[in-house]
Amino acid sequence: MNRFKRQWAGYGLTAPSYLWLTVTVFLPLLVMFYFSFLSQMPLGKAEPSLTLKQYGLFFQKDFYRFLTWRSIRLGIDVTFFCVLFGYPAALILARSVKGRWREAVLLLIVLPFWSNALIRIFAWTIVLRGNGVVDQAIHVAWPGAPSIGILYSYPAIVIGLVHSFLPYMILTCYISLQAIDGSLIEAGRSLGASHFRIFRRIILPLSLPGLLIGVVLIFIPVTGSFMEPRILGGRDGIMLGTVIEDQFTEVFNWPLGAALSFILLAIVLLICALAYPLLKSRLRLA
């Protein structure tokens, strides 16, 4: 009886949170899903009808499929560089940095979250443009050096997005690495295992959950990003995310924007579903 009461008490305490999540997450999605089947915006005297025309446009025009591939490639590139820089940083932070220095470094990692994302992106335009901060510093050290301004290019988009999402990778990996029992590493050392063998057989498998969570947290939002590609990429920053934004803010074709959004969501979920068996086996081994 007590167990029955505790179970219902748990349901009662968590019900408001789940209700709030259901309303705030699924209600807007349902509204946009309905819009994606309309022939036009339901404004004024317009009488929209239900149609699959918006979804058909995606398959009729190579333009949308090309941009979808560009968005997915951007997600892969940014995720790769976040893993490349984030995992070693988290490993050093968890295993080598001690005491207050660790707290100071953690503070530096989360510091970008305290500033507006738009300000951070515009700051990169000053750094990456020709005759910008980096360019001037190089010319001071090497007069006559060629300009390395890469603003309004694909590398500039990748740099801006890696800067924005790198803390997610460091923090998720750090939590997993910090939780590894030090006695396992000491046991490996006492048995004569090399540093590389200890990393490959103990540290990496046990830190995989944090690494994979970081990959998911970065890949999905980067694939649909539009602000960084628009500001840092210029003409080279046209992605499916920027086209979707244009449909809502410039063209006012909400049905097409909603349809493209759900197609991109379906593709990302499909990629995650295909990767799930591999991730599941790795997590089980970890």
Automatic annotation (TrEMBL):
<keyword id="KW-0472">Membrane</keyword>
<feature type="transmembrane region" description="Helical">
    <location>
        <begin position="72"/>
        <end position="93"/>
    </location>
</feature>
<protein>
    <submittedName>
        <fullName>Peptide ABC transporter permease</fullName>
    </submittedName>
</protein>
<feature type="transmembrane region" description="Helical">
    <location>
        <begin position="198"/>
        <end position="220"/>
    </location>
</feature>
<dbReference type="GO" id="GO:0005886">
    <property type="term" value="C:plasma membrane"/>
</dbReference>
<feature type="transmembrane region" description="Helical">
    <location>
        <begin position="12"/>
        <end position="35"/>
    </location>
</feature>
<keyword id="KW-0813">Transport</keyword>
<feature type="transmembrane region" description="Helical">
    <location>
        <begin position="152"/>
        <end position="177"/>
    </location>
</feature>
<dbReference type="Pfam" id="PF00528">
    <property type="entry name" value="BPD_transp_1"/>
</dbReference>
<keyword id="KW-1003">Cell membrane</keyword>
<keyword id="KW-1133">Transmembrane helix</keyword>
<feature type="domain" description="ABC transmembrane type-1">
    <location>
        <begin position="68"/>
        <end position="275"/>
    </location>
</feature>
<dbReference type="GO" id="GO:0055085">
    <property type="term" value="P:transmembrane transport"/>
</dbReference>
<dbReference type="InterPro" id="IPR035906">
    <property type="entry name" value="MetI-like_sf"/>
</dbReference>
<dbReference type="InterPro" id="IPR000515">
    <property type="entry name" value="MetI-like"/>
</dbReference>
<comment type="similarity">
    <text>Belongs to the binding-protein-dependent transport system permease family. CysTW subfamily.</text>
</comment>
<feature type="transmembrane region" description="Helical">
    <location>
        <begin position="256"/>
        <end position="279"/>
    </location>
</feature>
<feature type="transmembrane region" description="Helical">
    <location>
        <begin position="105"/>
        <end position="127"/>
    </location>
</feature>
<keyword id="KW-0812">Transmembrane</keyword>
